[in-house]
Amino acid sequence: MSWQAYTDNLISTGKIDQAALYSRAGDSLWAQSNGFQLDAQEITELARGFDDPSQLQASGLHLKGVKYFLLKADERSIYGKQEQTGVVCVRTKQAILVAHYPAGVVAGDATMVVEKLATYLIGVGY
User: Fold this and answer.
1) Which residues of 62-95 are buried (b: 16+ CB within 10 A; e: fewer)?
2) Does the N terminus or the C terminus of the chain have fewer Cβ atoms within 10 A?
3) What is the CATH number of the domain that holds 35?
4) Where in the sequence is the domain holding 31, given as residue range(s)?
């Protein structure tokens, strides 16, 4: 399966409206859906945030030029919320999944979809 199929699968759930898949270091984009691509500084800060969330805690999570209120940040998952929308970012052994959910979607439903895919990727060595 191509990397693009994974982001397309997230979109097809109806819980996610934009998604991207990056290398674990954040230095390369593997796939994207609906033109969802972070700028270099944003993905670098996100990738660093998994190991040291202090900068994200101090200044918030910035993706696609939008500042999200940081809800969770640990070595596996980073969640952010901005009004009625939010982002779910999950790091696997080799990748970072970044997914945006629109207004009207329950945050827990979007989170479950992304976390489930991440668990699958970890299980197959990615």
Assistant:
1) bbbeeebebbebeeebbbbeeeebbbbbbbbeeb
2) N
3) 3.30.450.30
4) 3-123
DSSP assignments along 19-82, one per residue = EEEEETTS--EEEEETT----HHHHHHHHHHHH-THHHHHH-EEETTEEEEEEEESSSEEEEEE
- Note the pLDDT of residue 1: 60
Enter the pTM of the model: 0.95
Would you state the pLDDT for residue 34? 87
Instruction: Please state, in angstroms and rounded to a whole number, the distance separating the CA atoms of residues 70 and 82.
Output: 9
- If one counts the domains in the chain, the total is 1
- Cα gap 67→64, rounded to integer Å: 9
Residue 41's region, left for phi above 0, alpha for psi from -120 to 50, else beta, is alpha
Q: What is the C-alpha separation between 15 and 13, in angstroms, rounded?
A: 5
Q: What are 13-25's pLDDT values in tens digits?
A: 999 999 999 999 9
